[in-house]
Amino acid sequence: MAAQAQSRQPELRKDAVTGRWVVFSPARSKRPSDLKSKSPSGSANESSDNCPFCAGNEHLCAPQIFRVPPDSAAEWRIRVIENLYPALDRNLGRPDGGGESGEVLGGFGYHDVVIEAPAHGVHLSDLPPREVGDVLIAYRKRIEQLAAAFDEIKYVQVFKNHGASAGASLSHSHSQIIALPVVPPNVSTRLGSMKDHFSRTGKCSLCELPLSDLVIEESTHFISFVPFAATFAFEIWIVPKIHSQHFHDIDDEKAADLGRLLKLMLKKISVQLNDPPFNFMIQTSPLHTTASELPYAHWFLQIVPQLSVVGGFELGTGCYINPVFPEDAAKLLREVNVP
Amino acid sequence: MAAQAQSRQPELRKDAVTGRWVVFSPARSKRPSDLKSKSPSGSANESSDNCPFCAGNEHLCAPQIFRVPPDSAAEWRIRVIENLYPALDRNLGRPDGGGESGEVLGGFGYHDVVIEAPAHGVHLSDLPPREVGDVLIAYRKRIEQLAAAFDEIKYVQVFKNHGASAGASLSHSHSQIIALPVVPPNVSTRLGSMKDHFSRTGKCSLCELPLSDLVIEESTHFISFVPFAATFAFEIWIVPKIHSQHFHDIDDEKAADLGRLLKLMLKKISVQLNDPPFNFMIQTSPLHTTASELPYAHWFLQIVPQLSVVGGFELGTGCYINPVFPEDAAKLLREVNVP
Ligand SMILES: Nc1ncnc2c1ncn2[C@@H]1O[C@H](COP(=O)(O)OP(=O)(O)O[C@H]2O[C@H](CO)[C@@H](O)[C@H](O)[C@H]2O)[C@@H](O)[C@H]1O
Ligand SMILES: Nc1ncnc2c1ncn2[C@@H]1O[C@H](COP(=O)(O)OP(=O)(O)O[C@H]2O[C@H](CO)[C@@H](O)[C@H](O)[C@H]2O)[C@@H](O)[C@H]1O
Q1: What's the rounded Cα separation, in Å, for the pair B47 and B170?
Q2: For residue A134, what is the domain's CATH number?
Q3: Does A248 touch chain B if contact means CB atoms closer than 8 Å?
Q4: Is residue B5 part of a domain?
Q5: Which of B10-14, B69-73, B105-109, B320-324 has the lowest mean pLDDT?
Q6: What is the tally of structural domains in chain A?
Q7: pLDDT in tens, B87-142
Q8: Fewer Cβ atoms within 10 A, N terminus or C terminus of chain B?
């Protein structure tokens, strides 16, 4: 179907991956190129005084899980630690089976923090591409540990909050990993939607190439684009070109390649949108599932700049209003130069 | 099942109505009674200068649909007008059938604004109970008009944004009505979940009385409570005691009764939570459906104070972290006195 870049009438689009209807509503915004963040990504602790994530303040942190490089004599570049205020409790009795059908489940689970750099004020996108890749490899390692140790963990959500209005309470560059005893709703919905597409067409919805006017950039192993029915203005997906269910199957070479592309995308939104708060999420498949069980599943990394506030319409309907057509966002992001 | 008010361990709960898993995580917050809004509900246009919604500035507004009282000689108390920047377009060709199965749909639909009072700075909860009821009757009337005129409108979402971090761009008290050509995802999910419960138990999930420790207040026709698996801290539902699918079947007497209870709930969250930004949404059933088609459906009004920011975990999983157990929130709201 032809993307209607020229049309400036509102349009509803349904995404083949998320299964979500999104209202594209150009009347709701100024020109896409004028859309900038009103609250650049400043966070709570701008100063490094007493920042628990700074090198030298390790004693202020919850226990370490591992560090990179592992040698404890050397200076670390990345630390994976326990979250001091965990949403789930690793010490709780594991839930006794049943799982998703019951109505209450003990809050067993893991909640970790990945400190992405030792120095305050060095953001993920400031790191050399290979070191961004090393952060991705740290995610992989932690997921592998969780998958190997606990059958009860059904899904691992890796995410990053950058900037106060994206939820970040600390500005020192970090991301989080939450391991859940249930498959969360967005994941079930996404897999259901991809399965439908697969049954109908025989194809994986993410192996099909996106329309060329939605593409931002390609690397050896990945492609980045604005999804056809992007939920949020300037949302970006980075997808492995080769069909793959699980993020944690990524190898070191692909992680370095993804690191380079992720850094570039973060730089592009920073320049185009005035250093916006953003989130990124790794959208992967449930643990303990095989490629033959989920032939339609394909992982990706989703980047969401936070440019607007969710209101009652979105809360009520689960339907989002996006003022920027994806093909317009992609063009701007393709063309913006980063220093 | 017994609500575990004493337990201070994290817990996952699944709501029988929304079908959503929520992580209750006491470690993530201070004591529930200390939870206050950090950004009381101030909005963009604090002053009434040039406020398009003020009496006398009607010429700054998009066209009126109707006013209350209808007599145009008298002073109005409520105005229902077109939205100047509509998300959907009432003048677009109506979508040619197909609907939800296709991937693109013309953005046909309606987007109206309800101005709840003529004077700037008079909020909904400042109105006498009966006038709050009149606002509800204005919603009903507009939904009836839309339902009678257009078979293509599948669902009408009534919602209110109060305060900038709840999405409000204007502070003059108002709410919005969006009429959609599709049944939105949260509604399908909710109806699916209520249908499951009905098939399993033979009962409507909202006709069953909530646990007494979740109840905040009862009126003649309605009951207000914190739902067992509240997605948001201090979320409140107001539910008609008599089984009813559609909000717009409410009669004047029930609307006045609901107006009183809604006002009380808004006052309670204002006192308890320091005038927080909030949204409310009417969660009703699709248009053009009958009671026999949806025997399990029961409408309600949902109030959500905005006390925290959505982060990458919620965006990624669709699963929310609520730091306040519903029974604790209900106790505080039950006990707080309003002036
Ligand atoms: N000394 C220490 N040692 C170890 N860990 C420490 C620590 N001091 C603080 N932490 C942890 O570090 C994490 C920092 O995370 P973020 O700033 O990205 O967001 P946070 O989880 O606070 O909440 C945001 O993200 C979540 C999940 O998306 C949303 O629920 C929420 O509303 C939003 O604000 C916090 O989880 C905190 O508990
Ligand atoms: N002169 C005039 N005549 C008629 N109408 C006028 C007008 N001037 C302004 N309006 C309309 O009045 C409405 C006021 O609504 P709100 O302030 O509640 O939120 P808004 O819709 O801006 O966006 C919030 O709610 C939506 C829906 O939840 C979210 O998408 C969004 O991010 C969030 O900020 C706006 O929709 C605006 O278009």
Answers
A1: 10
A2: 3.30.428.10
A3: no
A4: no
A5: B69-73
A6: 1
A7: 998 887 655 544 443 478 888 999 999 999 999 999 999 999 999 999 999 999 99
A8: C
Beta bridge partners, A125, equal none
| pTM value surpassing 0.85 | yes
Three-class secondary structure of residue A217 per DSSP: strand
pLDDT at A42: 58
- The best mutation among A24, A38, A313, A317 to test binding of ligand 2, ranked by most ligand atoms within 8 Å of the C-beta, falls on A313
Mutate to test the pocket of ligand 2, among B169, B302, B310 (most ligand atoms within 8 A of CB): B169
In a domain, A99, yes or no: no
Q: Which two tokens stand for residue B318?
A: 């669709």
Asked which of A2-16, A114-128, B8-22, B282-296 is least confident by mean pLDDT, the reply is A2-16
- Contact assessment for residue A205 and residue A19, using Cβ atoms and an 8 Å cutoff: no
CA distances from A169 to A123, A280, B29, B278, B320 (A): 15, 16, 13, 21, 17
Residue A327 in domain: yes
List C-alpha distances in Å: A32 to A107, A111, B241. Answer: 43, 37, 47
- AA identity, residue B18: T
- Domain of residue A296 covers 11-92+106-335
- The model's pLDDT over B190-232, given as tens digits with 9 standing for 90+, comes to 999 999 999 999 999 899 877 889 999 999 999 999 999 999 9
A153 touches chain B (CB under 8 A): no
d(CA A241, CA A290) in angstroms, rounded, equals 19
Contacts with A142 (C-beta within 8 Å, 6 or more apart), sequence order: A65, A66, A80, A112, A114, A177
The answer to whether residue B6 sits within a structural domain is no
